[in-house]
Amino acid sequence: MSSIEIRDSKDYRDSKEIIDDKETRDVKGRYRKDLQVANVQRTNEKLKDEDACNRKKDVLKNHSPEELVSIFDNLGIKKFRAKQVYGWVMKNISDFDEMNNIPKTLRETLKDKFDIGNLKVLVKRSSKVDSSSKYLFELMDGETVESVAMEYEDRLTVCVSSQVGCKMGCSFCASTIGGLIRNLEPWEILDQVLKIQYDLNKRVSNIVMMGSGEPLDNYDNVLKFLKLANHKDGLNIGYRHFTISTCGVVPKIYKLADEKIPINLALSLHSPFDEERKDIMPIARAYSIEENITACKYFVSVTNRRVTFEYSLIDGVNSSDKHAEALARLLRGILCHVNIIPINSVKESGYKRPSKGYIYRFKDRLTKLGINATIRESMGSDIEGACGQLRRSMTNK
Ligand code: SAH
Predict the structure, then answer these.
(1) DSSP assigned state of 285
(2) Any idea of the CA torsion for 325, 327, 333, 337, to the nearest 10 degrees?
(3) Cβ proximity of 174 and 386 under 8 Å
(4) How far apart (Å, rounded) are the C-alpha atoms in residues 74 and 68?
(5) Which residues, including other chains, have CB under 8 Å from residue 66's CB and lie 6 or more apart?
(6) Are 159 and 387 in contact (CB under 8 A)?
(7) Phi/psi at 343 (nearest 5 deg)?
(8) Does the pTM of the predicted model rise above 0.90?
(9) How many angstroms separate the most distant Cα atoms in the chain?
(10) What is the pLDDT of residue 388?
(11) Taking Cα atoms as reference points, which of 296, 344, 36 lies closest to residue 173?
């Protein structure tokens, strides 16, 4: 197995800028204004607490109630306090002094030993064309990640990021352009969900790990996040309502299957041909399509959950009838679904989305060949909805 090559951002810098219409320029103008406001806030807060970045305390939100009981016990704090503190933390409090059933002396001890773990909303953009909102969050070390909330009549789905940046180098994806900065901790993923739930005042029902980062490249923290978000005293989101999307880190697909957690798996396939997939996604040089499909079949057999194959449709690259036919042959007989994502143009990639007619032709071809396929509505097309686009436009990372 070869190692994965990290694509150099220079590859993209020279490529043609294709997002250049008036609407985009207007939107970009608005974002720049927001960033100036955000920077002023950050500077003021740094002055208030100069060593904030150097301090590293245990974060309450990183723990289940059971873990808090044992941590408190080791510190000589009565066990029943753990449950009370956990309750406050999940109420999205921002200050220990809001814990009004905890004695002041204990609050001081807690302040000394722990951080609550709160992300800051730097920017929120609500779409005018659909019911999605995009959030840019600031982490405690000043890095930023983005999340998307998609509201439907009967559910609220949140798309979370799992890493700051990404090392996978997929050629159409904005998240990977500056490479991987760092993994997110479990609480940093959890708090994206909690903050959105409180901001929209609506229970989050579904979580998709399709924001920035490769979830299976941050395996342990992602697994812990799943357990925290599923906890009945916490967000209490059933495992069947989680989807993890991966570019195809094959050994980790097996590992995830063996956890026997009934979550949904989405595999970013994007081409039925190995050579072509290698051009689009460097990970394909490490694991063949056949290895991925075998791993997905194993996942289905162990979890009994359907696998989704994501297929980002790029004009003139992977959108022909030949591709649809090869894809149908590849997936025949697998309990699966194909999600066609017309490419969101990221200026560095130079890729274009096919015309509407071509997108439907591709889908119809698959359906006729017996493969269940849908076209993913492009949520938030006016708010830089694709992976990593908002963070890039705001921070140039
Ligand atoms: N690392 C994970 C999550 C990525 S985001 C993965 O690779 O699956 C979720 C999906 O969006 C992936 O299928 C990804 O390939 C796709 N994607 C990323 N940027 C895109 C863009 N600009 N247009 C269309 N699809 C994109």
Answers:
(1) G
(2) -120
(3) yes
(4) 10
(5) none
(6) no
(7) -55, 135
(8) no
(9) 70
(10) 60
(11) 344
The pair of structure tokens assigned to 70 is 């044992």
Count of beta carbons in the 10 Å neighbourhood of residue 232: 7
Transcribe 181-247 into DSSP letters: EEEPPHHHHHHHHHHHHHHHTS---EEEE-SSS-GGGGHHHHHHHHHHHH-TTTT---GGGEEEEES
**What average pLDDT does the structure give for the chain?**
86
Return the best residue to mutate from 387, 389, 390 for the ligand 1 pocket (most ligand atoms within 8 A of CB). Answer: 387
**Predicted pLDDT of residue 22:** 29
The two three-digit tokens of residue 140, written as one number = 């405690």
- Give the model's confidence band at 348: pLDDT under 50 very low, under 70 low, under 90 confident, else very high: confident
Q: Whose CA is nearest to atom 7 of ligand 1?
A: 247
Residues across the chain: 397
197 Cβ below 6 A of ligand 1: no
Q: Is 389 exposed, middle or buried (0-12, 13-18, 19+ CB in 10 A)?
A: buried
What are the pLDDT digits (tens) for 113-139?
999 999 999 999 999 888 999 999 999
Q: Which two tokens stand for residue 344?
A: 């969101």
Q: What pLDDT digit, counting tens, does each position of 172-220 carry?
A: 999 999 999 999 999 999 999 999 999 999 999 999 999 999 999 999 9
Confidence at residue 397, expressed as pLDDT on a 0 to 100 scale: 55
Which positions ≥6 away from 52 have C-beta within 8 Å?
A: 45, 46, 140
Distance 76 CA to ligand 1 centre (A): 47
